[in-house]
Amino acid sequence: MQPEKQTSSKGLTIGLALLFGAAGASMTSDLENFWFGALLGALLAQIFHLRGRVQSLDQQLQSLRTRVEYPEPKPRAAEPKPEVAPAPPPSPVVVAAQAPAEQVTSAVQPSVVQPTPSTPPPPRERAAPLPPPEPSAIDRLVGEFISWLKRGNPMARIGIVILFFGASFLAKYAAENSLFPIELRFVAIAIGAFALLIVGWRLREKRPVYSEVLQGGGIAGLYLTVYAATRFDLLPTGLAFGLMVVIALAAAILAVGQNALSLAVIGTAGGFLAPIMVSTGSGNYIALFSYYAVLNLGVFAVAWFRTWKVLNLLGFLFTFTITGLWRFNGYETDDLLAADAFLILFFLMYVGVSILNCVRQPPDLKGYVSGSLVFGLPVVAFGLHASMVSHIEYAMAWSAFALGAFYLALGWVLHQTRRESFRLLVEAFAALGVIFASLAIPLAFDTRTTAAMWAVEGAGLLWLGVRQDRKLARAFGALLQIAAGLGYLIGMHYRNADDVPILNSTLLGAVMLSISAICSAYWLFRNQARQARYESGADAVFTFWGVGWWLLGGLREIEMYFPDAAYGAALSFVALTIALLAWLSLKREWRLPLLIATYLPPLAALFALTGAVNSGHPFAWWGAVGWVLLFVAHFAMLRLGESRDVHGLNWLHAGAAWVFTLIVAWEASYQIAELTTGVWALLPWGVVPALVVAWLGRQQLSPRWPVAAREQAYRIYGAIPAVVATALWILVINLSSTGDSTWLPYLPLLNPLDISVALCFAALAMWWSALSDEQRATCWQFDSRVLLAIVAGLVFIWLNAALIRTLHHNFGAPITFYGMKHSTLVQASLSIFWGLLGFAAMTLAARQRWRYVWIVGVVLMIVVVAKLVVIDLRNLGAVGKIASYLTVGALLVVTGYLAPLPPRKVNEQVTE
Predict the structure, then answer these.
(1) 337 in any annotated domain
(2) Are both 302 and 420 inside the same structural domain?
(3) Where does the record place Pro residues bias (predicted)?
(4) Within its chain, how far is the Cα of 402 from the centroid?
(5) C-alpha 499 chain-centroid distance
(6) CA-CA distance, 312 to 235, in Å (whole number)?
(7) What b-and-e string marks burial along 53-85, b requiring 16 or more CB atoms within 10 Å of the CB?
(8) For 504-554, what is each residue's pLDDT tens digit?
(9) At a CB cut-off of 8 Å and minimum separation 6, what does 601 contact?
(10) 466 shares its domain with 415
(11) Structure confidence at residue 3 (pLDDT)
């Protein structure tokens, strides 16, 4: 196999280096810029070459990988059979005598099995190779340019480009330095151009590609000569215009007659470059645009006979690029009429070119060139036009409307011809007509009205796309609704002084956005069987989009016009939304609105609780009514969800219990704080969760639905946060509150705080005792002794706090940390109390044989002894020391007698 011949990049490198070098030198006529441009062109050529090599090597690698993974099965050759002479059959006597010996031999030696030819397994089916990814628009454009450059004679083409630049430099240099009479200079250029034309024409049959290049260079030279002579007042304008028309027609005839795209491209490019190369900065745009109109006439003439997309795109880019540069550098307000007339002329010419292309063949609007011309032309032309008329009131709105009407009318006229080749172009013109007609709306109205009209228009287009199975119409309808939403957000903060509630552009715009989006979502949902791959999930997106606009519009309207009842009205509006979504889901057999309605209440409750921080309590501003309606809607959706197989209902039931507990505790605390002072306002934060825990800790739960029917949800998921909240409240309230009962006398353990704490402990015990072993394992997965230690710690803190509060209210003991540390009464009382607790724990543990409880009592006694030595000995007075030491010492003696260490097992003897 001959090795693959690698393509050389030498020609491409030299050509692009010369081309870019000449372009760089044309800017400043500097040699350094020439070398810089040449280097850039060479690097670009190497990039193109390496890119092609990488693609080739990648294809070879994929081919080899396929061969290795899926080899072709080789045909199996038949094995030759050895020729053996037939042996005479043995006699029966010999066979009978030899049989035992053969049997013994076969039992000792392994038998030799001759391989039998078998049918080869069928070859595995090769996996179909994945199709290569489609190249991007830029890759296609670069590929077309490189392929055009490499076809035929690239060196000749590059040479013509270099000659054109050289002639331009020569003409400009000669004009600036007055080397020759100016007439002689232009005659010489014209003679050179005619020479190229004549030589190229004579070689049209022998060397067609080379001939096209030479003729293109000649045409470009003639364009340059006539235009430059006109700029230097050597030719009258009328004569020059006539000559350029003749050159354009001649170039078109030559290109069409010889079917020479190269000739047309080179000649046209040279014609467009000529004014740039010989520009003197005089600003005579009339001459420039007249000249370009003639060139575009040539492009139009060629399009009448040939569908050369490259030529069309080349003329389009040159025309509107140069026009745009002049608009932002040399345009003045007085030039509006003439400049706009030329702009409209250029626009109509290239619309005609698009139509002529379709006459000969269907336009490939997915391709880069046709799509750029059809869709890029109105964007560029309208942008330039708008920049010139923006100072005139409503001029842009009328212009957009006129352009939209033009495209719609043109599309209708082409549709009436019933030509199949016009089908895609009619759809494109219709889309452009709708786009520019839609653009006229925001240019004439405020953003909110614009958003409403765009949204309705987009929904209509999407419905039409679903009915007619048009992907482009569906996509444009969706994009139009998204643009409407963005426009609404821009103008949402502006408010007119004469706006009235409900009937104003703010609310109506949001409602129209919402209805349009939800209708679009339903149509896309019903069209799932025919949807494109990129449309997957679009129905869900538009559903959320519509619900979001509905909520945004309604809540903002409530905030603007009903501030005194905003909280309750917002919750009621959410409840109404939930009901509407449920109705829509049941009416249309559409599951997604039902899911949104089911999961919306928890989200609304979260935002509502956040908003209640600003209002002070959850029932402010008619909040009670709103919360009731929200809970009714929530439980109605939970009931409906059970028959619709909605997931996560247990957590939604539990969440309702959490929110109910929080808002009742919050509101009760707020209302009590409004009536009295002291500890009373803090009690609901512990009592309310404790009551919920007690309610969920009964043996028989009620009501039957939802609590009893969802026992796991309420007894476990719903109760655990309330249990944690109750335990934390016990800890915090005992560490931070003095237990002031204001208008009631303070009684030890019979005051409101201690009674509430006792109630909390009773509720926790009630709930824990009602749990089954499996439920307890679900709630607490650690060692049970850790749980007992936590409960014992909470009880210890409560009793100590109760003792200190009693000393404070009845004996005037300090309640601050510093005061308690230096108070003889407090420290002595704590020492005695801790000793009593240790004594009680050890005595009870010894009788019940609770070894670990006894150890806890011992630890507490050790702490008491350490406290006596470290704290009480230095800080207490004589009476305090005596009382503490005597009491604790007596307790230790009695404990040692009454409460020995329990044994590890029941049958062990207790050591005295």
Answers:
(1) yes
(2) yes
(3) 83-92
(4) 36
(5) 36
(6) 30
(7) eeeeeeeeeeeeeeeeeeeeeeeeeeeeeeeee
(8) 778 888 998 999 999 999 999 999 988 888 899 999 999 999 999 999 999
(9) 574, 578, 630, 633, 634, 637, 652, 656
(10) no
(11) 45
